[in-house]
From TrEMBL:
UniProt GO MF annotations: glycine oxidase activity
One Pfam family hit: DAO
Species: Actinomycetospora atypica
Pathway(s) this gene product operates in, as recorded in its UniProt entry: Cofactor biosynthesis; thiamine diphosphate biosynthesis
Record-given protein name: glycine oxidase
EC numbers: 1.4.3.19
UniProt keywords, alphabetically: Oxidoreductase, Thiamine biosynthesis
Record's keyword annotation contains Oxidoreductase: yes
Amino acid sequence: MPAQGGELQVRDRIVVVGAGVVGTTAAWVAARDHAAAEVVLVDPSPGSGASSVAGGMLAPVTEAWPGERELLELGAASLARWPGFAAAVEEASGRRVGLRTDGTLAVVVDSADREDLDRIVTHLRDWGRDAERLTGREARRREPALGPAVRAGLAVPDDLAVDNRLLLAALREAARRAGVVERPASAVRVHDAGGAVTGVELDDGSVLESSRVVVAAGAWSATLHPALDGLVRPVKGEILRLRARAGSLPPPRHTVRAAVSGRAVYAVPRDDDRLVLGATQYEVGFDEDVTVAGVRDLLGDAERVLPGIGDYALEECSASFRPGTADNLPVLGAVPGAPEGLLACFGHGRNGILLTALTADAVATLLAGRGLPDDAAAGSAARLTALEVLS
Ligand code: GLY
């Protein structure tokens, strides 16, 4: 019998809300592993959110700060999966994802920032992670695009980087080939009855009936069910996309992270002479304006480290919203107090692209009813008791 909005009821339907890298990966994995189910991916504008406004660095070591050991371990577990994940996406889609293996150089330009670098090295060694300390001259020898202002650095050769937009396109194609149906609408709310999920209400008034809903709507996830309220907030970031012009100095080969007068900036090269600069960080709700000060700081800080970029074309300035959580860890699986069948898959914060490979495995085991992989346990939604949410 037709359900509300004319939808046919499908007994085994999995609805994934949100078509960024995490949601599209979840939908692809769901369709791949559950061929009998209809997998519907709901998003008014697939691939247009935070996943497209990203550098694509796969750099858990330089993204981790003292006190974020669990995040470092999650990131390291995901980085180890990335070569296999990238190969699987490329195979399933027939498209490249632009994986780069040149590693990261973290550099500083003044003495206060050098002390920060020292502190990071000490913490990393305490955690048993390796990092090679470099003088400014050594850093420039490895990366000729670095300018004379660079005074010290840190090499992290095992880091990777991926072209986030190629990745989005490849994931979308892999999902399509696996049978995922895209539904270009906004999800308004996850419905439940008797303690279990019954479907997803869309902004066109229809309800997609389903007993399994993966919420992967990034910073918007908290609005979809009262049990998710307060679990995730928007953390705005701005990025710039540059292109080297004929006669310009070439972009760096490595991902370059820099601290400049206490501000963080990163530059992630692409295979086509383009460079992504990021990223500012603001707690301003869903304000999507790109600010003059944000662009000024990113360009000024990046140019101190990579002086050749002054001659590049500035192709794009964009802003979006990282899905931030109280402890900077993602929220994966069944949330305490949420209806049965609602699987959280959000809150990846600064590490959405990095953690996608681990999240792919997490979605596979969660949908199979086996819980999270051991090395994803720090992201378990079960840690979120009502008390922690309120405090
Ligand atoms: N991981 C990069 C960023 O959040 O800006």
